[in-house]
């Protein structure tokens, strides 16, 4: 697997919400998963599980639940109703695009899960791995986005995928080739979000 | 700043609990913070704050609270009592070492914080940034460890650092030069933690 510059990849990572249906190679998927499980986690208990969804039928069902969940979250009846809203943010427009097409593309979705009881703070033991996944993918030219909106359909997702009740489904990460080019992320200046020795502002 | 290989750094990252008191340069700290804030976060609201603790007095106080919290968690009266336990795990022994010395080394601690109300799932909006921080540091030869045990002293930490009640203190990350060399992390095989299309096992 070719190398990639850590700071270049980390500094340019973007959330991708427009994907092509171009396949993700087994080799790339394996490399990404190998990096995912190197992440730190509470007590190295590795109480995580990664569900890799490739079956078109399963992905279509997830896509359907995802769209329902997004519409519930934004209190809308249809995607078009959301898109017609004046002053709609780009993120929301992109989220609607993702929700509409998730059943078709990208060709892979990863559901990152963690045992609820295995660690004192589940989030601290799964999201570092999720970030590794996204960075490893980006280094290979593959896009991802960390999504949680489908939790409005947590029960239906659980039933669809057979996920036991003692497992927290933490993030669904679509994974595939971006359908367009992405510039660097927009962020506030460091000095806006860093304080020294004591909270300020 | 020199380059570093993404997969090499990600694949070798270890939790460091033995630090030297060798200084961390301003340039390195800045590079690490620049990378930290590139992480994805809910709605790009960047509802995070990073407290960089360098004042020896502040670090000493945090170290004191940290040790108290660890002893509470493992139900022990003194560090020596913990170390004398038969069958003590290496992680716990290392945690005691960290807790005992945190007030002196490393020369930097970062407290990663997130607004409780700004995002639907605070963990998903702060731990990717924490992972970026740890990877960026490791790429520069600097060690870190994601700690949460001090939460047993959440109120005291909050008072010490002036952190408002609507802010979640998510992770305290000691940052500095490792006092020893670390081999690659030990992890279960991918096939133990990955399922395809449906939960299994």
Any chance you could write out the topology, listing elements then pairs?
The structure is a homodimer of 201-residue chains.
Chain A: H1 6-12, H2 26-36, E1 48-53, H3 56-73, H4 79-83, H5 90-101, E2 108-115, H6 122-139, E3 143-144, H7 154-161, E4 167-176, H8 190-193, E5 194-196
Structure overview:
Two copies of one chain form a homodimer. Chain A is of the alpha+beta class and 201 residues long. Chain A has a single domain (6-180), classed as 3-Layer(aba) Sandwich (NADH Oxidase). Helices cover 41% and strands 14% of the residues of chain A. The first copy, chain A, has a four-stranded antiparallel beta sheet with strand order 1-2-4-3. In chain A, helix 2 (26-36) packs antiparallel against helix 6 (122-139), helix 3 (56-73) packs antiparallel against helix 5 and helix 3 (56-73) runs antiparallel to helix 7 (154-161). The radius of gyration of chain A is 18 Å and the shape is globular. The model of chain A has no long low-confidence stretch (mean pLDDT 96). At the A-B interface, helix 1, helix 2, strand 1, helix 6 and strand 4 of A face helix 1, helix 2, strand 1, helix 6 and strand 4 of B.
Entry keywords:
homodimer, about 200 residues, alpha+beta, NADH Oxidase, four-stranded antiparallel beta sheet, 8 helices
Write a short abstract of this structure.
The first copy, chain A, is α+β, with helices and mostly antiparallel strands. The first copy, chain A, is built from 8 helices and 5 strands; from the N terminus they run ααβαααβαβαβαβ. Chain A has one domain: NADH Oxidase (3-Layer(aba) Sandwich).
């Amino acid at each position: 697997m070719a190398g990639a510059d850590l700071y270049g990849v980390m500094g340019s990572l973007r959330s991708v919400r427009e994907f092509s249906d171009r396949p993700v190679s087994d080799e790339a998927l394996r490399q990404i998963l190998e990096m995912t499980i190197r992440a730190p986690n509470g007590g190295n208990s590795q109480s995580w599980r990664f569900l890799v969804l490739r079956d078109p039928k399963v992905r279509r069902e997830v896509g359907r639940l995802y769209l329902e969940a997004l519409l519930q979250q934004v209190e809308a009846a249809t995607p078009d109703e959301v898109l017609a809203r004046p002053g709609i943010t780009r993120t929301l427009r992109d989220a609607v695009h993702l929700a509409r097409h998730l059943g078709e593309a990208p060709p892979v979705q990863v559901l990152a899960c963690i045992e609820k009881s295995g660690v004192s703070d589940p989030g601290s033991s799964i999201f570092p791995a999720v970030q590794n996944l996204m960075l490893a993918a980006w280094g290979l030219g593959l896009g991802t986005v960390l999504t949680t909106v489908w939790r409005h359909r947590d029960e239906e997702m659980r039933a669809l995928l057979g996920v036991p009740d003692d497992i927290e489904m933490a993030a669904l990460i679509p994974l595939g080739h971006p359908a367009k080019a992405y510039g660097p992320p927009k962020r506030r200046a460091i000095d806006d979000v860093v304080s020294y020795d004591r909270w300020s502002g």
